[in-house]
Amino acid sequence: TEASGTGNMKFMLNGTPTLGTYDGANVEIVGEAGLENNYIFGARVEELERIRDSYDPNEIYEKDGRVRRALDALVDGTLSDGGTGVFRELYDSIRKGASWHRPDQYFLLYDFEPYREARLRANRDYRDRRAFAQKEFRNLLNAGRFPATAASRNTRENLESKSIR
């Protein structure tokens, strides 16, 4: 997962299926390479707009043991930030918000379970190396829309003449 669309496009140029939400450049990546060749999870923009005012991440935190364990690991000594306080800031940002944003402004807890399921699906799919290689190949083949260099286009044309057997 990666927050920058250009970063995900670089991954695509290396044949890497995207594990991410359906927004930004991921919409374009999936449009080119296909949903079946990527791992898209979480709420769509329309759903987030609908729940924005009523969303309470603390309700998810209290009800979902997995979410609670993952979030608590930031502040209970399980993980170390080297004493910087960054993990505490992240924890507080999600649970309490800050002066400039509401709690969990990016809906991380809302998408936690769909992310976990998508990651597990990717891990299962990877066991079938041939099928996973086809996903990689399709991502690489369809990445030609994004790069600006002729070399990348030539690579795509060369790859199109080959197939995974």
How does the SSE layout of this entry go?
Layout: H1 5-13, E1 19-21, H2 25-33, E2 39-41, H3 45-51, H4 57-63, H5 65-72, H6 86-95, H7 112-126, H8 129-141, H9 150-160
Parallel strand pairs: 1-2
Helix pairs in contact: 4-5
Distance between the termini: 29 Å
Number of discrete domains: 2
- List SSEs in N-to-C order: HEHEHHHHHHH
Helicity, as a percent range: 40-55%
How does the major sheet shape up?
2 strands, parallel
Rg over CA atoms, rounded to whole Å, is: 19 Å
Shape: elongated
List keywords for this structure.
single chain; 165 residues; mainly alpha; two-stranded parallel ribbon; 9 helices; elongated
Structural features, described:
By secondary structure, the chain is mostly helical. It folds into 2 domains: 1-42 and 112-165, no CATH class; 54-110, no CATH class. 54% of the residues lie in helices and 4% in strands. It has 9 helices and 2 strands.
Give a short synopsis of this structure.
This protein has 165 residues and is mostly helical. 54% of the residues lie in helices and 4% in strands.
